[in-house]
Design goal:
Radius of gyration: 18 Å
Helix content: 40-55%
Oligomer: single chain
Mean pLDDT: 87
Distance between the termini: 26 Å
Number of domains: 2
Largest sheet: 5 strands, parallel
Low-confidence stretches: none
Strand content: 15-25%
Length: 223
Amino acid sequence: MRILVIEDEKKMSGFIQQGLTEVGHTVDVADMPRDAREFLKKNTYDILILDVMLPEISGIDFAKELRGNNFKGSILMLTALSTTKDKIIGLDAGADDYLAKPFEFEELLARIRALSRRKGEDTAVLSNGDLSMDLISRMVSREGSKIELTTKEFALLEFLMRHLDKVVDRNSIARQVWGTDFDPDSNVIDVYINHLRKKIDSPFARKLLKTVVGQGYVLSKAE
């Protein structure tokens, strides 16, 4: 999943970004709401992790702004304020869940999994014919056979599965899967596409992952 963390405490945002990246998510970090707005113009996020205490405007007001602008993703609020009244205010502002600081990282992961399930099974499991990937258990299979993927291969396949039959260029892949610091001149994308092709295509008769010369890559929709 693609996640945006809006947190002005560098230590906290770094801790969250590192942990979520290690388990396979693509994570961007914004220190301020103004930076978050720029990220939101460029990318689509499944989940926003939003701190309540921000210097420009409160996380409460920013959540209201996001919902007013029709943001459809989940919002998980972080705060040191953990009274029932504070939680109600956050939820009424448009948050889907509320996590009090300090917290264990495993609890944050559990909340993220729960938010994914809450959005419905259609977003938790992606399928294309006999190719299936469960975003919660992180299991991939084709023709009933389990396929082992690295965290980055999983993120790349998820992006392709969400854009079935659409040619996606290298810049889109770099931005959505590798994040903003990716070197566009690197051949890393080509290497990972080849790794993915060997795992999800080579052992099977029907080939799904194709290269469109001069344009990018496409995961064909199974008939």
